[in-house]
Amino acid sequence: MAGSDPAPLTLRQLLALGVSAGRELRWGLNAVRAELAIWSARAQTIPDETVRSDVLKAMTKGRTLVDGAALFWTLPSRRRPELLRMLVAFQTLLNFIDIALERDARGRDGSSGSLMWLARDALDVDGAAPPQHLIEDTIGNDGGFLRALVFACRQGCASLAQYPEARGLLLREARRSRAFEIEHDRDVPRRTENMKEFAAQEFGGHTELSWWELTGGAGSLLTAMAVLALAADEATTEEDLRRAADAYVWVASAGALLDSYIDQFEDAAVDGHNWLDYYPTREDAAQRMSEVIGGALRETAALRNGERHVVMVASMTALALSCDSARGEGLRLSTRNVREGAGTLTKLLIPVLRAWRIAYGLRAG
Going from the N-terminus, what domains does the chain have, and what CATH number goes with each? Predict the structure, then answer.
């Protein structure tokens, strides 16, 4: 029901929250820090100065995205360290691709092509190894850094009990991630036309989300992360994977809107693309974002072990709404309204994640 609480504090929900929080506090946060320290040390050895700078910038700017991706390791019934390592490597790869696409789109270098194919290679254990010469032709000499990320992801995939059942969905999501490249096209009419065509091709039967909401979500690969997490459980069936992939279309769209929400002033300052610009007003955008978040919570609650998924979605939402930009003078009222529509669990988590941001110096985003 549209007006009901999409994330109520039921006993099952509280138990799921306790298990997820316990896993994160006892193992997850330290493991993410350790993995990032390893990748950061390796990044310092990248020969090309520009590539090295971009990688380190991506790791700093995208730190909260890595923490968000790592939350997916709370979905399986047991701890899977190899899953967490893979999620950290995969989001680190995506963060770098984002930086490279932004730089290329603004014409600040001579990049010769996209790197989105690396996302596909990272998820395809059976595929050919990504050629180092193609990476270097595209971005410069990275000293094998991106190949190392890809192989870390493949190693994680190979460890998943249900990877063979998940592979088709993962490759579909990797194909859909070309939306990420389309989004970075600075030719507005061409970008709009390509996004509409993309949404029609990939989500033609989906009528509850707009073409820009679907396109924005596809570029994040959040759906792929959910499929990876579920594939780590032996009990997961192909039907579980399919239903989760359908439900996470909503989650991915909500994530894209939340990212745009907290980045809207920064994007406006550099004339950057922002998904909220597709709505008539910012008030309409905030209202719609609240509706999509509610839809994501309800869709995931209907999955097997739905309470774990609801914790995931509530945590993702609270992580965004707890940053400084969402609490600033220009967004304070709309943030309050979004918070009210995002369910009791989300409201409970916002101050907790606010304290975590302050403790780890991650207040900005």
Answer: 11-359 (1.10.600)
Whole-model pTM over 0.90: yes
With H, G, I as helix, E, B as strand and everything else as coil, classify residue 46: coil
Q: Write the single-letter amino acid at 237.
A: T
Here the tokens at position 80 are 């899977």
Q: 252-268: buried (b, 16+ CB within 10 Å) or exposed (e) per residue?
A: bbbbbbbbbbbbbeebe
Closest CA to 68 of 332, 311, 343: 311
**How would you write the pLDDT of the chain (365 residues) with one tens digit per residue?**
445 899 999 999 999 999 999 998 889 989 999 999 999 999 999 999 999 999 999 999 898 899 889 999 999 999 999 999 999 999 999 999 999 888 766 554 434 457 889 999 999 999 888 899 999 998 999 999 999 999 999 999 999 999 999 999 999 999 999 999 999 888 999 999 999 999 999 998 888 999 999 999 999 999 999 999 999 999 999 999 999 999 999 999 999 999 999 999 999 998 889 999 999 999 999 999 999 999 999 999 999 999 999 999 999 999 999 999 998 888 999 999 999 989 999 999 999 999 988 887 766 66
Q: What is the DSSP letter of 2?
A: T
Angstrom distance (rounded) from CA 355 to CA 261: 21
H runs (alpha helix) in the chain: 11-23, 29-43, 49-61, 63-70, 81-105, 117-123, 132-139, 145-158, 163-176, 178-183, 188-203, 211-218, 222-231, 238-269, 282-301, 306-321, 324-327, 332-341, 344-359
Phi/psi region, residue 42 (left: phi>0; alpha: psi -120 to 50; beta: rest), is: alpha
Of the candidates 91, 152, 146, the residue with the CA atom closest to the CA atom of residue 118? 146
Cβ contacts of 204 within 8 Å, gap of 6 or more: none
